[in-house]
Amino acid sequence: xxxxxxxxxxxxxxxxxxxxxxxxxxxxxxxxxxxxxxxxxxxxxxxxxxxxxxxxxxxxxxxxxxxxxxxxxxxxx
Amino acid sequence: xxxxxxxxxxxxxxxxxxxxxxxxxxxxxxxxxxxxxxxxxxxxxxxxxxxxxxxxxxxxxxxxxxxxxxxxxxxxxxxxxxxxxxxxxxxxxxxxxxxxxxxxxxxxxxxxxxxxxxxxxxxxxxxxxxxxxxxxxxxxxxxxxxxxxxxxxxxxxxxxxxxxxxxxxxxxxxxxxxxxxxxxxx
Lengths: 77, 186
Hints:
The complex is a heterodimer of chains A (77) and B (186).
Chain A (H helix, E strand, L loop, with lengths): L6 H16 L5 H14 L16 H4 L6 H9 L1
Helix pairs in contact in A: 1-2
Chain B lengths: L13 E6 L3 H8 L5 H9 L2 E7 L8 E4 L4 E5 L27 H16 L6 H10 L14 H14 L1 H7 L1 H14 L2
Parallel strand pairs in B: 1-2, 2-4
Antiparallel strand pairs in B: 3-4
Helix pairs in contact in B: 1-3, 3-5, 4-5, 4-7, 5-6, 5-7, 6-7
């Protein structure tokens, strides 16, 4: 069983994301860093990173949402 | 209402479906949406796609892409990681965690992401924000306490899978969900 997520950290990341978004400072790189931090705070439960979805452009998450099978096909091509 | 009218349909409630689960399991997952109060809003604003596939990146397992109005769910959910916990109102991690059944976890994740889709309906976001701002709120899960969007999405899941527990533990959240569902059907 995974350890309990760091809830304070998840809430802090959510507040930071909202602040950056409102300030017009969210870009792909910033968003990816926040996702890494959120995943780390979730202790591996990636259902707990979807709070970052409102701040992502579709093109930023395209590769993250790629199915494993498609990625495998690409690597074999 | 006739039975076929309360089932999710391609071209009416969503445009594209991809799944690497068996047909029976895919149907079982989608059946969680077979409620008029969910299907009526989806008919007004269909999802562009629902993908239930084994995703390659471990950092995302359930995601609503706001620009595309699409939902992606990782079908490769792991016990002890994405599900396997007990449901304890107010202290469980999240609703899709609080089940010992992997398919039920995907069903709950789908409900959670559909809740995010509902944010775009008139009045819905303001009702959700008001619900979260209420001093009476008692988030049904720990994740529900992280912001207004997750407060609504987790309460929405609980409204359908643990309605008595939601109305007992968090009457404010239960009322918020009812108000949003009424607003999305206007």
